Amino acid sequence: xxPKKPHALLLWMLVCSGGSTEAIEPxxxxxxxxxxxxxxxxxxxxxxxxxxxxxxxxxEWISLNKTGLQVxxxxxxxxxxxxxxxxxxxxxxxMSNDNPKKPLVLSLHGWTGTGKNFVSxxxxxxxxxxxxxxxxxxxxxxxLHFPHASQLETYKSQxxxxxxxxxxxxxxxxxxxxxxxxxxxxxxxxxxxxLDYYDKLDGxxxxxxxxxxxxxxxxxxxxxxxxxxxxxxxxxxxxxxxxLETLLSLAVFNNKKSGLWxxxxxxxxxxxxxxxxxxxxxRHVVQCAMAEMxxxxxxxxxxxADQVARDVSTSPKQREFSLQNSQPKDYREGVxxxxxxxxxxxxxxxxxSAGLLKCxxxxxxxxxxxxxxxRQNNKTGKLSFCK
Length: 387
What we know:
Shape: globular
Strand order of the largest sheet: 2-3-4-1-5
Number of strands: 9
Oligomer: single chain
Structural class: alpha/beta
Radius of gyration: 28 Å
């Protein structure tokens, strides 16, 4: 018979060794038995120790910090009252359900730089102990993972296998699809079965997974609604989800470049929430800059925040933070123009990376720069604010 537990065998050997001798030293025997018992106890608890040292698909590593998510949405996300409420409600409701009927599917829409990627990061940070670095958080971008339209069928198969393999490994996996408006039509339909109300598919349950789609599609409709409220003299905080949800879903469904064009995900109502991200105003950019200065250990400077907001392209008549410059060509031209006019040493560069608004303020200190600012920034001459 082969012992099932190695530590049981070790215990047996320690206790029974020397059994053929005529006499056994009591002290030695007691020490041996004690060591064996201690070793057995350690090995019995070893799996739990391992779970704490290495990321595993367990509650120690994956559990919602609802308070943390709420605080992050309130203190770090500006100008997105609709998105904040929906995200908190959707994620907390889903994570508190031990037996959800389907995966959580969120579709985030709005112009580049309004906070879609940032919200995805906040969700990950408050669900996974390792945040975006978790091995259970997976990000797909069109240009990196699905660049060639001619290989669409191959991409479909690869995407299915990737999702199946990762959910098999951890039921609480998160999948983020960035740049949905650049996805090849039909690609996302290949994962439709995984988002549906199935108990299991080929022995795998997808009900506890989270899928997040990020897209610029629908930005025009969102901006138009916000502008209509402004023209009517109504505060933007009066805009509710009901004012945008149907309009947004139709705009995305009928847009050939949305990544969700005529998709069965919308047709079969598998998207749980269409989350609109409103265009930002001057005051929101100021809040963003102030918050980032504080987060990086610097004393918030209203004058710097004001300069950031003024240098970012805005539409005076509409008071909206204009992201028309977010198109690569126009954006690069805007950066070039700002670099030519350094505004007495303050070069403000709006860096949009992976759809996440990051107001990177490069403080290029020239001979006329303020000495106090020079001392505060004496290492590199640069500070980065506002994500």
